[in-house]
Amino acid sequence: MAEPSSVAAVAVPGVLGIGAAALIPGVDLNAVIGAWAGALFFVTWARDLSIWSRLAYLVVSWVGGYFVAAELMGRSLTKFSGLPGLLAAALIVTVLISVAEWVKGGKMPGWISAALGWARHALSRPGSGGGNG
């Protein structure tokens, strides 16, 4: 069972943040709540981190998830913002960490290799606009 102090350290900022966001006109509360849920999922899943690292990742994940959801809504790629916020918040820290490790001289993340392979394949097909023929 989790210690009451660690539960409070996560619950209090969430309640305060959602409450504060509700007071600001133009803020999409579905995206805020979805991003909070995704950030909470990530922080709960990453058990090997210190409490301060978890709190920092919680904030980065929450803000990143909200902005991704808002961007998708702004581009009319989705009708609803809650699920995109949740998924983006759950994934954004993992993506950013893997890119940061790659930039520092580590191995290229597998998801980037897969995306580049898919793009090469898509552009090399006849009629895809990738050639000059």
Short key terms for the protein model shown above:
about 130 residues, mainly alpha, about 75% helix, about 0% strand, flat, transmembrane, transmembrane helix, Phage holin, membrane, Phage_holin-like
Structural write-up:
- The protein has 133 residues and is an all-alpha fold.
- The protein has one domain (4-108).
- The chain is 74% helix and 0% strand.
- It contains five helices and no strands.
- It has helices at residues 4-23, 29-45, 51-74, 82-103, 110-124.
- The chain starts with a helix and ends in a 9-residue tail after the last helix.
- The mean pLDDT is 83.
Concise summary:
With 133 residues, this protein is mainly α. It is built from 5 helices and no strands.
Secondary structure blueprint with pairings:
Elements: H1 4-23, H2 29-45, H3 51-74, H4 82-103, H5 110-124
Organism: Pseudomonas chaetocerotis
Protein name: Phage holin
Keywords: Membrane, Transmembrane, Transmembrane helix
